[in-house]
Protein 1
Amino acid sequence: MDSRILSARAAKQSGVDERWAEGNEAWWDWYLSLAADDGPPAELVELAPPAPVALPSLEALREELATPYALSDAEAEQFRAEGYLKVKDVLSPGALALARVEVERLAAAGDGPGTSGFLSLDMMWQGDSEVLRLFALSPRIGRLAADLLGVADTRIYHDNVLSKTPGCGRTPWHFDAHHFPIASRDIVTSWIPLQEIPEPMGPLAFAAGIDTWTLAEEVDFNAKDSSYDAGVAEAFKAAGVRVDDSPFALGEVSFHHAWCFHYARGNATNRSRQVMATTYFADGAKLVDNPTMVSGDFEKFLPGARPGAVIDTPLNPIVSR
Ligand SMILES: O=C(O)CCC(=O)C(=O)O
């Protein structure tokens, strides 16, 4: 989730129907300030570093990321009913270790996280890292996205490194369609942890049920406090929604539909929670007629796309084959 784009309805509700004037990190600082958080943990849980592993060659990585994953009908049905799916053993420890090395290199070279401790780097596939380019354009993941959505092909919307440094707080309840200017229901995000995510590190957590978002429709979005996060949590609790906040094993990848509500607890460990997230949309989808933006990033991800027209820009190649 990124892009700082709100639907017209949400923008009107929230009173933020104006351009975001600051940078990416400041946006995340603002966004995390909307979380109904208990504050920083008293003590960080000490975790051992990821076990050392032999790094694959670029050729081996390319092959791994191009090899189709055999998704079962039951898994696809589960995704369509629940709005999310966690799939084990999608990627090897070596491939993940290579991505970790790259994320750490780029994080060290950047401006660092903002005051919230959340570091977000997007469009990494356009940068100098061949490893992250292979991850973002991976036909293995892009095909999985297409098969889960039940569409012929998917295009990349954007990639996003999401790193929560030790002590970084909670990501509030939200659903991504709230942010996307794409006129399609066929949008999904892969969330690839680059190390295990045990409970205290704050795994991404999902509200089960493809229609669960309707329970949150009456909760007003407020850009200045944590009332939306708390209101959504209350609405789900009252309706008995199942929330899956299970840990992620190494190699496990989740996929969440753009209408699936999700949140993540803070990172209460001494290690950064490194994730590579990529969003995909169905080939043939159009840009909405009237994109409403709180930043200029819409043109960064979909440069030259025209309101109401099929999206087919050089930055949105087909990635499912
Ligand atoms: O990583 C996080 O804490 C939030 C990620 C998210 O909301 C997303 O990928 O859609």
Protein 2
Amino acid sequence: MQFFGERAQKTLILVVILVAIALASLLATVALAYTPGPVVGGAAVRGIVKFTGPVPAPAKLDIIKDPEVCGTEPKFDESLQVGAGQGLANVVVYIEKIDKGRALTTAKAELDNRHCRFVPHLQAFATGTELAVKNSDGVLHNTHIRLPNSDVFNYALPEKGQVIKKKMTRAGLMKVGCDAGHVWMGAWIAVFDHPYFAISDKDGKFSLADVPPGQYNLMFWHEKLGKGSQQLTVQPGAAQDLTQVYK
Ligand SMILES: [Cu+2]
């Protein structure tokens, strides 16, 4: 007995295959997602990032638009900041592909357009954080936040004191620019779907709390010097002190 014609049968088989593929990719996504829970034997991972190369004086930026507001003080390139003991500031430090550990903490974050700079120049936070993009200047800014292949935020802020809030749901390293002709304005935002990330401070120091025992890749990213990594083995309760060097 035949319920379907041959053509209908072929269509049915195709639909079943497509549904199976969709389910498989959905399950793969779920398996990769971060699962928060209690951490047994968690340890601190601390360290310092150093830059041992020559540190040039920061270049002065050309203020080619709105000089009456943006050019009232000199502005300098912020991409390489080296402090005491060759400590390299503004390095994003994070554990790669960690799938379980302590809960994410979300806070409120701010990105201010102030004196035609972005403040802060670099920040990192967890997914679910609400980012308030603010214009503290009496001049039009258009804040544009993007992932490598897509826009995250792209709004004009024409008024002084204006704030536009956006809940940040996607993880990734985002580049920030101003589309209102302020080509010198630039910043970075790193968003993570787990809590194991930090930004090195002015002297290159960083700290990750309560890392579950295990083997990981500890990753480093700097806007000018690029990526680095080191193997990380966390033993139960044993704090680590690491040094990462950029040359
Ligand atoms: Cu601007």
